[in-house]
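Good morning,

Attaching, inline, the C-alpha cells for the sequence recovery test we're adding to the shared suite. The designed sequence is right after.
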C-alpha cells in the first residue's frame, strides 16, 4: 500500500551525526547541562594554553568554540554559562598580571570582552534558535506521523470497505474490510477494476453516475449495488462515492465507501414477504387492519383494506366513524371505546350503516401507551360478520322452533308412553284373569275326574303348562318395561362379589353338576346395584344353562381391555351360537336354540342389554358353535361422558 514518507526520529542504531542533528538539550537536567558546559570550558582553557602562549592574540577563540559546543549540548543556558565563565578565565588566567583581575588597559579589555560577549550571544542564540526550530520540526514530523498512522488505522480498521479508484475503474488502494467483503486479497484487487467485482446488472448505473461526477453534474453519489465474491456468492452493499481533486483542481481519483447490507436486504425481503403474506391472509379472512392516532383523532386503514368492509374511504375522524355506526349501537360503541382506553383491549360486534344498508362488523383493538399509561395509538382489525350474524339469528330461530317442536313431541311421546304403560298393565291384568280361569278349570277337571284316560290327562297337563308359560311371558314383558321406567341410582357395586354369590346359588340349585367357575377379584363399577344384579343373573344363568351339556364346563367373569377401554366379560365354553343369526340375540322372545335343547323364554338377553343401555354402556357378544360364547359390556360412569368404543362383535 502506498504510504507517505516522513523523516523518522533517530534510534539507538542511528549514526552519530543523525543523533547529533536531532539532539534535544531540554531532555537533560540543568545541573547536567551546566556541568558539561564547565568541563567543555575548562577543556578549552587547557587547549588554549597548550596551543599558544597566553599573551598571544586570539585568546577568546577557544572559549568561543567552548560556548558553541556548550550551547549545542545544553542549550542557551549552558552556552551563556560557558561564555561568562570563559570571560572570567580569560581575564583571570590569560591576561597579565595572572591570577588576578587587574587590567592594565581597561579600554582594550572592555572592547574585547564586549565583542566576545556580543558575538557569543549571537552564536549561542542562533544555536538555541536552531535547536528550537529543530524541536518544532520534529514535533511537526511526529504529528504528521501520528496523523498518518491514525489515517492508516482508520482506513484499515474501518467497519466499512474503503477503496481508492481511478477514473478507468482500476482499484488503487483498498482496506482489509473490503478485501473480506469480496473475498480477494490486496494483491489480487490491485490488478482488478471495480467492474470485475460488480454484478453485471449493476455496472451500467454505476458508470453513468461516475460520468456525471466527472462532468461536474454532481460531487458524489450513493446507490445500492451487488458485488460478486471470489467464491461466487453475491453480496449487497450500500456504495457512497466522492471525487478527490488535485491541488490545481483537476480530478485525481474516487473514494468509495462500501457498507455490507446483505443481512439488511434479507431482512427487508423477509419483511416484504411477511407483509405480503399478512395482506393475503387478511384478504382471505376478510380482515381490514386499522391504525388510530388517539391524540390526532385520525383513524386510517392499511393497504386499502377498508374496501373489504364496503367503506367509501380509508381515513376517518372519531366523529365520522361514530356517525356510520348504527344508531342503536352508537352509545354502546362509544361507551365501550372509552372504557377500553383505560384498560388494554377493545373487542365487540356492532352494526354499521352504509348507503342505507346495515352490516355487522366485529372489531378488536389493542393500545400503545406512553410512560404515564395513557393510550396514544391503537391497532385494530375489523371483519364483516354480517353473514355469520344472519346465520346466528337463523340458528336461534330454528333452535327456538326446534325446541318448541321437541317439547311438543316429548309431550306427545310421554302421553303415548303413559297410555302404552296403562295399556300394558291393563292387558297384563286382563290376560292374567282368563289364564287363572283356564288353569283353574284344568286342575278342577283333573281332580274331579280321576277316571279320565291317559290321553285326557296329557291334554290337561299341556293346557296347564301353556297357561303357566304364558304367565311367565307376561311377567317377562312387565319386567322389561319396568327396567325402562325405573329411576337409575348409581352406587359403588362390587361385581366380583355379586357374581360369586350368584354362581354359588346356581351351584346349590344343581348340586349334581361340576362346573369350573372363576371370578376375577376386585371388579368394581359405579352403577345401580339392583339392575347390575339382574344383569349378571341373566348372563350367568345363560352361561350355566348353555354349559349343561358340556362335560367339562367352565365359566369365567373377568375384565378385558379392548382399544384401551375396560369391558366386563362373562365367558363360557358351552353350546355357543352361530354369528350369522346373532342379530336376533338381543331381541325379546327370539331364541337361537330349539326349546327341546335348552329351556327358556328368550327374554333374558334383551333384559340384560336394556340394563346396559340404561347405564350408557354397550353390550356385545362373540361365539363359535360348540366352543362357547363371551358377552362383553360396559357400565359408563356418569362422571365420564366419553362413549366407549364397540369391540368387534355384534
Amino acid at each position: 500500500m502506498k504510504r507517505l514518507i516522513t523523516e523518522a526520529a533517530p534510534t539507538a542504531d542511528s549514526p552519530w551525526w543523525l543523533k547529533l542533528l536531532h539532539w534535544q538539550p531540554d531532555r537533560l537536567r540543568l545541573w547536567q547541562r551546566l556541568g558539561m558546559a564547565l568541563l567543555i570550558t575548562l577543556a578549552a582553557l587547557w587547549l588554549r594554553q597548550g596551543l599558544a602562549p597566553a599573551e598571544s592574540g586570539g585568546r577568546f577563540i577557544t572559549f568561543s568554540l567552548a560556548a558553541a559546543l556548550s550551547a549545542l549540548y545544553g542549550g542557551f543556558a549552558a552556552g551563556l554559562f560557558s561564555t561568562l565563565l570563559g570571560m572570567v578565565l580569560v581575564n583571570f588566567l590569560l591576561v597579565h598580571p595572572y591570577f588576578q583581575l587587574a587590567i592594565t588597559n581597561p579600554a582594550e579589555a572592555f572592547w574585547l570582552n564586549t565583542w566576545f560577549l556580543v558575538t557569543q550571544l549571537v552564536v549561542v542564540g542562533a544555536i538555541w534558535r536552531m535547536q528550537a526550530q529543530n524541536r518544532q520540526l520534529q514535533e511537526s514530523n511526529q504529528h504528521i506521523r501520528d496523523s498518518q498512522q491514525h489515517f492508516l488505522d482508520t482506513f484499515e480498521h474501518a467497519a466499512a470497505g474503503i477503496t481508492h479508484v481511478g477514473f478507468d475503474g482500476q482499484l488503487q488502494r483498498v482496506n482489509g474490510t473490503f478485501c473480506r467483503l469480496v473475498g480477494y486479497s490486496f494483491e489480487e484487487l490491485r490488478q482488478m477494476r471495480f467492474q470485475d467485482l460488480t454484478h453485471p446488472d449493476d455496472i451500467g448505473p454505476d458508470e453513468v453516475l461516475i460520468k456525471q461526477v466527472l462532468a461536474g453534474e454532481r460531487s458524489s453519489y450513493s446507490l445500492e449495488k451487488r458485488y460478486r465474491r471470489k467464491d461466487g456468492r453475491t453480496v449487497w452493499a450500500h456504495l457512497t462515492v466522492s471525487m478527490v481533486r488535485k491541488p490545481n483542481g483537476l480530478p485525481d481519483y474516487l473514494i468509495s465507501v462500501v457498507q455490507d447490507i446483505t443481512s439488511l436486504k434479507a431482512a427487508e425481503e423477509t419483511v416484504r414477504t411477511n407483509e405480503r403474506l399478512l395482506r393475503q391472509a387478511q384478504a382471505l379472512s376478510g380482515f381490514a387492519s386499522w391504525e388510530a392516532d388517539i391524540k390526532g383523532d385520525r383513524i386510517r386503514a392499511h393497504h386499502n383494506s377498508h374496501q373489504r368492509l364496503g367503506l367509501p374511504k380509508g381515513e376517518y375522524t372519531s366523529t365520522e366513524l361514530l356517525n356510520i355506526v348504527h344508531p342503536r349501537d352508537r352509545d354502546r360503541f362509544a361507551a365501550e371505546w372509552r372504557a377500553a382506553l383505560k384498560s388494554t383491549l377493545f373487542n365487540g360486534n356492532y352494526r354499521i350503516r352504509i348507503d342505507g344498508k346495515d352490516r355487522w362488523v366485529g372489531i378488536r383493538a389493542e393500545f400503545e401507551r406512553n410512560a404515564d399509561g395513557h393510550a396514544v395509538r391503537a391497532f385494530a382489525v375489523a371483519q364483516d360478520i354480517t353473514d355469520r350474524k344472519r346465520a346466528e339469528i337463523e340458528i336461534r330461530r330454528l333452535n327456538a322452533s326446534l325446541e318448541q317442536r321437541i317439547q311438543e313431541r316429548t309431550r306427545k311421546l310421554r302421553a303415548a308412553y303413559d297410555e302404552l304403560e296403562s295399556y300394558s298393565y291393563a292387558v297384563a291384568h286382563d290376560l292374567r284373569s282368563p289364564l287363572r280361569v283356564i288353569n283353574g278349570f284344568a286342575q278342577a277337571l283333573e281332580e274331579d275326574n280321576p277316571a279320565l284316560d291317559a290321553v285326557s290327562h296329557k291334554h290337561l297337563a299341556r293346557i296347564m303348562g301353556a297357561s303357566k308359560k304364558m304367565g311367565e311371558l307376561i311377567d317377562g314383558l312387565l319386567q322389561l318395561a319396568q327396567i325402562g321406567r325405573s329411576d337409575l341410582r348409581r352406587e359403588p357395586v362390587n361385581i366380583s362379589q355379586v357374581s360369586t354369590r350368584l354362581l354359588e346359588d346356581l351351584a346349590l340349585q344343581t348340586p349334581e353338576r361340576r362346573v369350573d367357575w372363576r371370578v376375577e377379584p376386585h371388579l368394581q363399577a359405579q352403577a345401580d346395584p339392583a339392575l347390575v344384579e339382574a344383569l349378571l343373573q341373566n348372563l350367568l344363568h345363560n352361561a350355566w344353562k348353555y354349559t349343561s351339556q358340556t362335560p367339562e364346563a367352565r365359566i369365567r367373569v373377568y375384565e378385558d381391555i379392548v382399544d384401551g377401554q375396560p369391558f366386563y366379560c362373562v365367558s363360557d365354553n358351552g353350546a355357543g351360537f352361530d354369528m350369522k343369526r346373532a342379530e336376533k340375540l338381543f331381541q325379546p322372545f327370539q331364541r337361537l336354540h330349539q326349546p327341546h335343547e335348552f329351556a327358556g323364554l328368550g327374554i333374558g338377553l334383551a333384559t340384560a342389554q336394556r340394563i346396559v343401555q340404561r347405564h350408557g354402556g354397550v353390550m356385545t357378544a362373540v361365539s363359535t358353535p360348540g366352543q362357547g360364547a363371551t358377552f362383553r359390556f360396559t357400565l359408563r360412569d356418569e362422571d365420564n361422558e366419553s362413549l366407549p368404543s364397540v369391540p368387534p362383535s355384534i
